[in-house]
Specification:
2 copies of one chain form a homodimer. Chain A is built from 9 helices and 4 strands, in the order E-H-E-H-E-E-H-H-H-H-H-H-H. With 223 residues, chain A is an alpha+beta fold. In chain A, helix 1 links the parallel strand 1 and strand 2. In chain A, helix 1 runs parallel beside helix 3 and helix 1 packs across helix 6. Chain B: It catalyses: RX + glutathione = an S-substituted glutathione + a halide anion + H(+).
Chain lengths: 223, 221
């Protein structure tokens, strides 16, 4: 059996951060090989390590997996964070995809042209308050349980709590009317593995700043 | 046990078509309730039938599932099109997501502003020929089996074959240098003919525009 999973990405959140969260929450130690120059990415491509020439790529259990969802689903299955049967998995997928839709909007914000940024932020806040947060608050309210699906921690809870942190970074007031989401955030954050990940010095990555954005553009050759 | 799955969407491909393909390939009969007016969509939203106010939505086994991947994964699991273990599932997911990335580009083409269309088509052709088709051809070449994963039909094969038909619609010559892909499209012949559909491509200006985009921006659905 191979060693720890090895994550190939640049040193920033991007599309790898949700994978870091999931591994961390599962209590799995992992290594990171940071892409720092465009040439590092070229090398991975020329080695044939990237099926579609893209990262994230995670080396795990003898595989070189690409595509964020493929990686997340594998980790979730391996560490029992994917529900107990196919109906629970369907709910977990449905919730995770909703989180991903909003998360994608937030992730792309640094790349948004300056003249469109305010409108984009307004749209994100509107969606958060009127579409996504109410949907998840309703799930928790309806069953009154501690976790979204099957009364047990799953990838859906981890993805949602990660998202709540990002929304809070943007505007803490957005959580105001969602007590059950706040409760879920507190509950998941206090799990030992997650608590450790939230502390300084962990492999959790900070928000993207100008320098980090320039680095990503340089590595991925984005104009 | 409820009856046939019931698909809620407008009468066009969009994000529902891959679900239709998968059900059809699995031999599952399904019903469709077409959204024809903005009011139909409003009704579904007000009923609380759409978790995130969006379609596709599929009523299946007592659930009202939204989010294309959640629906696809459930159907694939239920009808044994998702591999035999988690490693096979990982490969199926990886391949399916690659198909989806290219499929998304093709799906958005009708919504592309006219002055950007040629560049977009060129990008699609380039990605098809240099990134996606070679990747799948290589998988088939390496193991020499009839299907992408585990020598057995899976959702990955169905999604890929559906994509091949769309690429062919765009430009048949793109398949020229990929003999193994051409073979998977046709093999086995009976299944290939059953799942082939000759729907007209979506025209965004008509139904889709009226129903979804009313007062919203095209990219916001």
């Amino acid at each position: 059996m191979a060693g720890k999973p090895k994550l190939h990405y640049f040193n920033g959140r991007g599309r790898m951060e949700c994978i870091r969260w999931l591994l961390a929450a599962a209590g799995v130690e992992f290594e990171e090989k940071f892409i720092e120059q465009p040439e590092d990415l070229d090398k991975l491509r020329n080695d044939g390590s990237l099926m579609f020439q893209q990262v994230p790529m995670v080396e795990i259990d003898g595989m070189k997996l690409v595509q964020t969802r493929a990686i997340l689903n594998y980790i979730a299955t391996k560490y029992n964070l994917y529900g107990k049967d196919m109906k629970e998995r369907a709910l977990i997928d449905m919730y995770s995809e909703g989180v991903e839709d909003l998360g994608e909007m937030i992730m792309h914000l640094p790349l948004c042209p300056p003249d469109q940024k305010d409108a984009k932020i307004a749209q994100i806040k509107e969606r958060t308050t009127n579409r996504y947060f109410p949907a998840f608050e309703k799930v928790l309210k309806n069953h009154g349980q501690d976790y979204l699906v099957g009364n047990k921690l799953s990838k859906a809870d981890i993805h949602l709590v990660e998202l709540v942190y990002y929304v809070e970074e943007m505007d803490p007031s957005l959580l105001a009317n969602f007590p059950l989401l706040k409760g879920l955030k507190a509950r998941v954050s206090s799990l030992p593995a997650v608590k450790k990940f939230l502390q300084p010095g962990s492999q959790r990555k900070p928000p993207m700043d100008e320098k980090n954005l320039e680095e990503a553009k340089r590595i991925f050759r984005i104009k």
